[in-house]
Design goal:
By secondary structure, the chain is mainly alpha-helical. It has one domain: Serine Threonine Protein Phosphatase 5, Tetratricopeptide repeat (Alpha Horseshoe), CATH 1.25.40.10. 59% of the residues lie in helices and 0% in strands. It is built from four helices and no strands. The longest helix has 14 residues.
Length: 88
């Protein structure tokens, strides 16, 4: 069975351009970017977009956490704003 990743990515790109934006589309695209394309930076940005669209959706947060856990997180994640560390 041949895999058509190019076509899949085009479908994902179209899905994240719909109005109104859908967090599930962003989350699925992020998973594709991570697992298929191995583009960790783009995957992380896309996971963050999914969470920004639906900040109270714990499913998107858990997928992002799984991404960070699986990739080591240190070299792949953006620094989080933590006000408790800003006085250090």
């Amino acid at each position: 069975m041949a895999r058509d990743y190019q076509r899949s990515e085009e479908c994902f790109r179209r899905a994240v351009q719909v109005t109104p934006p859908d967090g599930e589309s962003f989350s699925e695209y992020a998973n594709f970017l991570w697992t298929v394309r191995k583009d960790y930076l783009a995957a992380e940005e896309t996971y963050l977009q999914a969470m920004a669209l639906e900040p109270h959706n714990s499913y998107f947060a858990s997928r992002y956490a799984n991404f960070l856990w699986s990739t080591g997180g240190e070299d792949t994640c953006f620094p989080l704003n933590n006000s408790s560390n800003s006085n250090v």
